[in-house]
UniProtKB/TrEMBL annotation:
Ranges annotated as biased composition (Basic and acidic residues): 723-734
Species of the source: Ornithinibacillus bavariensis
Transmembrane domains' residue ranges: 12-31
Chain positions covered by the region annotation Disordered: 723-748
One Pfam family in the UniProt entry: PASTA
Domain (PASTA): residue spans on this chain: 607-667, 668-723
GO cellular component: plasma membrane
Pathway noted in the entry: Cell wall biogenesis; peptidoglycan biosynthesis
Family of the protein in this entry: Belongs to the transpeptidase family.
Record protein name field: serine-type D-Ala-D-Ala carboxypeptidase
Record-level GO BP terms: cell wall organization
Keyword Transmembrane helix: yes
Keywords: Membrane, Transmembrane, Transmembrane helix
Length: 748
């Protein structure tokens, strides 16, 4: 009985526990059913997550183009190779899915991947030995092109697999590498694990990375346990937002020309550094920019110079700074170009005398205009110390923005420094020593000289375009950022720059072009001694430079070239630092101007005229000819009438250098226009009312209306033009008649 009571008691307790447990479990199930959640987790959401699979849709990085739409950087599909080395993947498979023969596999892959067989075999054997499922091949297995992948696929090697990736590709190699920069793959941690993406490292790739990289999309849908899409998959597709395209202001053809010429100079003269910039000075657009040493962004290894020296490496510029010294003196009202001074040496206080570059000998008593053409340090020093005063000169240096960055749209810009604490520093700054600047700062300041006093901001990004829609998101436009000098001062400085190239003893005479006139200024700057005070000595220890603009009367292109410590060959004194500089400048400018179809002006400006046309209408032809002859103005008379009824230059306007003034008489007849420029032909057609058709570029070599023919409105005039270089290539007999027909229609 006692046992039965105990058994019944235990059974009752168990029954109670069972009932309690049943109620708890049932209650729990009822709660879950009612609430649809467990531990705060929604079962519906959890089930959706389990059933839902998601794949990333990679965005495409934006392309980089030149101004004319040539592709400079784009994403190229590549492949990463890996190998399955465990036989588990081959179970229940008719064909092996793993590497069966490591040695044979390595032997066939080695020549296609351009690596040693031993390297690949070691990787495969280590994977098998360590019990790995799959292995990769390091850098040898990355960035494989589609052509190489197809060759490997054709071998039908079991266990060799590929993953598609994108890599950044630069089709022109070294071309503009410091501008474009490069982008590389980088591992980034995300919520779904590690994700590889291309990230800009230098240049435009870095500067515009946020716009170029875009945003990935995704596709998600619900599936069953066999990974098959459900009938009602609740599919969601978010398309990727591809990166925007960036168009640069550089011109691929001019940039290629610059790269080729700089490579030639680099190979021959082996300089420490070189930089060059080609700019449209009217807008501030950078047409070309390059440095040496450079690098190939497709394989940026063993790079000797990461810096874009044209914007990132300040240096003492030398005599190119003198154009701004003279501009400041002219603008401040203290300059008299004809005033004489004694060249040679100049001393202020107890400081060491400043000497002209010819060993301090100078050229005796010369004018300040001559001093500019001869690049006289003494003239520059006297202008600052005696004429303007250091405080006034400093004001103009700051007006030209030599104390700040240009804010060009490239990363890594570093501004120069105005060293101006002591009298000797104030004087040496006048001729480009002591104070530092960058090539881009000099170019920006020089735009004020080209643009009648208005200084424009340099820029290299032309526009940003949505790659999906083609819509222009942002269009860059020229921006005036200062007006340090007046229009008259700018013109006077341009005239000085012309004489610094064209005059007989000018230091820039090497920089004359065959077909275009040039204005510019040379520079030969000493290099500070890195081991102590003072400067390096020796004929090659300089930075040789030149800033030039052409055509000189209305510059369409401006170029700056600097070469540091070239290896020079001094043969009978004919070789100098300006030779490699002029080789770059002359080749690039001459060809670039022709490529842009800029009208040649024969490369010479013999007179720089400031003559302002008076009222000459209805005066006798002989009287007008006499007035223009006295002013040394070039002109041509249209017809044999006794009275001038119209001029090609309006009253009150100044005559440009080398400009031909057309005098239309009251009895118009066709003049001999052989040798005329396209501009002059168009002016003639406009004055007389001719229907003009022009074939070619350069100067007139044939005309459809014979000389002396009476002219009337709507007459047809067809002309053929050739450049001086094209004329030189023709046989002497081909143009004998034209040569004989060259009329002496100026200074009549």
């Amino acid at each position: 009985m006692k046992k039965n009571k105990t058994t019944h008691a235990m059974a009752g307790i168990l029954m109670i526990l069972f009932v309690v447990a049943f109620l708890l479990i049932s209650g729990r199930f009822l709660y879950i059913q009612a609430s649809g959640s467990v531990a705060g987790v929604s079962l519906n959401e959890w089930a959706d997550n389990v059933r839902t699979t998601t794949y990333t849709l990679d965005s495409e990085r934006g392309k980089i183009f030149d101004k004319n739409g040539m592709t400079l950087a784009y994403d190229m599909p590549t492949f990463r190779m890996y190998a399955i080395v465990t036989d588990k993947y081959s179970k229940d498979s008719e064909e092996p899915q793993h590497v069966v023969d490591p040695e044979g596999t390595a032997e066939q892959l080695a020549p296609l991947l351009n690596v040693d067989k031993a390297y690949l075999l070691e990787r495969l054997n280590n994977g098998v030995k360590n019990g790995q499922s799959q292995i990769e091949f390091g850098s040898a297995g990355k960035g494989i092109s589609i052509q190489t992948k197809e060759k490997i696929d054709a071998l039908k090697l079991p266990g060799i697999k590929f993953i598609k990736e994108n890599s950044r590709y630069y089709p022109n190699g070294v071309f503009a590498s410091h501008i474009i920069g490069f982008a590389r793959e980088k591992e980034n941690k995300t919520e779904n694990g590690i994700k590889n993406e291309i990230v800009g490292v230098t240049g435009i790739e870095h500067e515009m990375d946020d716009l170029l990289k875009g945003a990935n999309g995704y596709i998600s849908y619900q599936r069953d346990i066999y990974n098959k899409k459900l009938l009602d998959p609740n599919e969601v597709i978010q398309m990727p937002d591809n990166g925007d395209n960036v168009y640069l202001t550089i011109d691929q053809k001019i940039q290629t020309l610059l790269e080729d010429v700089m490579t030639q100079v680099d190979n021959k003269y082996k300089p420490e550094r070189m930089s060059a910039i080609v700019m449209n000075p009217k807008t501030g657009e950078i047409v070309a920019m390059s440095n040496r040493p450079s690098y190939n962004p497709n394989n940026p290894e063993n790079v000797k110079n990461w810096y874009n020296d044209a914007i990132s490496t300040p240096f003492e510029p030398g005599s190119t700074m003198k154009m701004f010294t003279w501009a400041a003196a002219i603008e401040s009202g203290v300059y008299n170009g004809g005033e004489q001074y004694k060249s040679g040496q100049y001393k202020v206080g107890n400081n060491k005398p400043v000497g002209d570059f010819n060993g301090g000998k100078g050229w005796g008593m010369i004018s300040y205009d001559e001093g500019f053409a001869l690049s006289s340090n003494v003239a520059a020093s006297k202008l600052v110390w005696e004429k303007m005063g250091p405080d006034t000169f400093l004001k103009y240096l700051k007006a030209f923005d030599f104390d700040k960055e240009t804010d060009i749209d490239l990363p890594g810009e570093v501004e120069g420094q105005i060293l101006y604490n002591y009298p000797i520093e104030q004087i040496t700054t006048a001729f480009g020593q002591g104070s530092t600047t960058t090539p881009i700062q000099i170019m920006k300041a020089a735009t004020a000289i080209v643009n009648d006093g208005k200084m424009v901001k340099p820029y290299i990004i032309d526009k940003i375009v949505d790659s999906d829609t083609g819509k222009v998101i942002e269009q860059h436009k020229p921006e005036v950022v200062g007006e340090p000098i007046s229009k008259d001062t700018a013109k006077q400085v341009r005239n000085l720059l012309i004489q610094a190239v064209q005059s007989e003893r000018a230091t820039g005479s090497r920089f004359k072009l065959d077909d275009y006139s040039v204005g510019g200024k040379t520079g030969t700057a000493q290099i500070p001694n890195p081991d102590g005070g003072g400067y390096l000595r020796g004929q090659e220890n300089y930075v040789f430079s030149f800033l030039g603009m052409a055509p000189a009367d209305d510059p369409e292109l401006m170029m700056y070239v600097s070469i540091k410590q070239p290896t020079l060959e001094f043969e009978s004194g004919i070789e100098s630092g300006s030779v490699p500089v002029s080789f770059i400048f002359n080749n690039v400018m001459e060809n670039a101007l022709h490529y842009w179809n800029i009208e040649p002006d024969k490369g010479e400006i013999t007179e720089v005229s400031d003559y302002k046309i008076p009222n000459l209408i209805n005066k006798s032809t002989e009287e007008v000819k006499g007035i223009l002859n006295s002013a040394k103005v070039s002109y041509s008379v249209i017809g044999s009438g006794n009275k001038v009824v119209k001029l090609s230059v309006e009253e009150g306007n100044k005559v440009l250098p080398n400009e031909r003034v057309l005098l239309l008489t009251n009895d118009p007849a066709m003049p001999n226009i052989i040798g005329w420029s396209q501009r002059d032909v168009l002016k003639l057609g406009e004055m007389v009312g001719l229907k003009t058709e022009i074939i070619g570029n350069g100067y007139v070599t044939s005309q459809s209306i014979p000389e002396g023919t009476k002219l009337g409105e709507n007459s047809y005039l067809g002309v053929e033009l050739k450049t001086p270089m094209e004329v030189k290539k023709t046989k002497p007999n081909d143009n004998s008649k034209n040569n004989q027909a060259q009329s002496n229609d100026t200074f009549e």
